[in-house]
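User: For a benchmark we're assembling, each entry needs the component sequences followed by a predicted structure for the full assembly. Here are entry 17's components. Please fill in the structure.
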Amino acid sequence: MRWLQAAMPFVVVAAIWEVVAHSGAFPPRLFPPLEEVATTLVRLTAAGILPHHAAETLFRLGAGFAFAATAGIALGIAMGRSRRAEDFLMPLVSIGAPIPGLAYAPLFLLWFGLGDTGSIVLVAFVAAFPIILNSWTGVKAVKEIWLRAAQTMGADGRRLFRHVILPGALPYILTGLRLGHAQAWRILVAVEMLAAVDWGLGWLIFGAREFLNTDAMLAGIAVIGAIGLALEKVVFQRLENYTVVRWGMMAA
Amino acid sequence: MKAAISIGFFLLLYEAVARSGWFAAALVPTLPVVAKTLWWMLADGTMARHALATLYRVFAGLAAAAATGLLLGFLMARYRPVERFFLPLVSALMPIPSLAWAPVFILWFGLGDTATILVVFYAASFPMILNTWTGARAVNPLWLRAAGAMGAGGAAMFWKVVVPGALPFIITGLRLAFQRSWIAVVGAEMLAASAFGLGWVIFDAKEFLNADIMLASLAVIGAIGFLFERLVFGSLERSTVLRWGMVRAAKA
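Assistant: Structure for entry 17:
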């Protein structure tokens, strides 16, 4: 019953779409009925084209995000721990963060070339900002009393960092990673359109435009939405459940 | 003061790299060249035309998104069936990056303003809907009962209690919507604009290796985004929710 209720809106929208698509008001090439989109989705998946596009996109996302996470967490923690690092980096970060990442895209493509390097560097650059800012906030938000308690119990710098500061800042760091991932995903799809790479989901939908393959575009959009949602729900939710939720620092 | 030192240091570093001759001067122009380009584009009015074209697209999309978001958000908060119908749709569509729709909109509406505005609309709608909905539900029930006891009818209750009560969330929604549409408009202009716009001018400059134009436009994009964030949304907050004492100003 609840399942039915959740499905209802989608059924209504799909029905409206079908009526419009079959009415002949728009050319079917531009406004394909849903069964055609579904057939294309199945055909492209079976032929291995869609998985190949998705794999390339995920590789770029993974590579860029890995750089962003490493550099972002390191810089953020450094800024949270050291006054000097904070004074030096904070103005640069606060200038860089609000500029839309895509505005850099042509510049990065010019500097690092079309294709993988340019898009990976851009993804890393864009995703790094929320990660830096959140890691910094996280370190700042570690309770003073925890630090003092650990110190009186004789924790040295390393143990203090490893057992108090890092776990204490983790809820914020995870939020930063989540935001960074969301930004990276958005930027990556767009940059694949601009960079004219050979494979990639962004290119799949943008390239399909040339041949009026609206069905392939809509199938690609559905896959992009599904992957984004899956990464968000599966990876980040699980990461949170295993760490901060289990430690009782955050409600599930 | 410290900010000036770190920004100055960064600029010097850039200047040193630009003058070192490691990279082509067309790709890494020196700062005086960028400043001169910026000055010329500002002086002869081309930058103003690009900026106006971009601002027009942002505000057309943002206004439509705000109207839709407010209407839908309040209706969802007030009527259960509306909420049950739209909430699953919103959660399903939200994870799809707005720029993924760009090729479809281009195909349906052609290159130009309509496609760009629609991308902005898509990007800005979700924060508006979700924040209005959350805000309207977060209105203190005590206020509702008090107003009811004092004889407020439906219209008075809505305008004098629900709307002001939800306003802190709505303003945050507007702010998020602006940030998102500012990102979306730059990307959409690169893909879909035909003659003017800050995103278009950056992308167009890539063809001619005009890195100075790119950097100058990047500076303008950053400056406009910063101004809106600080002046427009800041003063909106000061004149409403801050003045009413509903939220406190963050310490500067």
